[in-house]
Structures
1.
Amino acid sequence: MRLRCAVLDDYQGVAAGLADWSSVELTVHREHFSSRDALVSALRDVEVVVVMRERTPFDADLFSRLPSLRLLVTSGMRNASIDLGAAAAAGVVVCGTGSTSGPPVELTWALILGLARHVVVENSAFRADGPWQSTVGTGLAGKTLGLLGFGKIGVQVGRVARAFGMSVAAWSANLTAERTAAEGVRLAGSLEELAGRSDVLSVHLVLSERTRGVVDASVLGLLKPSAFFVNTSRAGLVDQAALVEALVGGRIAGAGLDVFEEEPLPAGHVLRRLPNVLATPHIGYVTDGNYSVYFREAVEDILAFAAGSPVRVISG
């Protein structure tokens, strides 16, 4: 008998067409389950669940309510919304897939450039037969890009900045001058120094208990009034109330955001309304290439599990 498998949060409805699911009894859920009870009802009899990134958290309570679940597959090899200890206690194997770092780099720059050149404002006016030129853009050459985090994504974002003629500085808790110098990047002495120097501050950290809320009101207060703040990493890295206050008060020029405390972001949320916010609905990793890898390797994970030799196992 084929395993019963559910794919969650397939917003675009593409999962079924990006891999060969013929080995399982597949159900795809395009809409996000806002109710825990509705989620449990939909998954009660399935043995395999495939989740997209961190859209649906799996905690001890949820595992306890899904006694048929045997395998949980997540896109990527890291998912902070899965309680790995609870999964192990429930006898559920957790596996991941490959992913690439290029797409979030590209979106970071889409947000930076969109903010700097007022692309949405000008395009909206263009389509509405509005004024022909109403803004003055911010040139990036000679400005400073500050990178909070200098892993694979941060390094690539910095390389693009240098191509635009920007200087680049970076900081994180364990970052060394040797590592930044190899990329032609200056190591800031502290997060406070980085914020004060940056014309654009872009966040590229992994969310952990140590980094949660690292960008707080004091850090935001050090940004120049002309500075842009960009976050394509995780909302939890930033004090959201302090960010909204800085934007509402015009204390920074704008923010480019792809991640939010609650996703989907509720209708009417202040971040949907602020004119100095350029936001996208957590699409940093949403590309044809990444999705093809996610779902093809998810099927590989399922087949390997069914054969008794799980691959790409994620353990706590």
2.
Amino acid sequence: MPTRLLTIPQAAGLLAEHPETLRQRLRRGELTGVKKGDGPRARWFVTEKAIDAYITRRSTR
């Protein structure tokens, strides 16, 4: 089954946090994502698998 790419608002909704907080986590490397495009118009995408892995890491601390 192919992995679904989520937009920042979709992923932020799953984590119950603000989209900008999620972008900061991506920039710091706390969450794995894919940046598509170049320059200021580039957009981040996150896989459902990356969200699950992040939740698992946070819950085992």
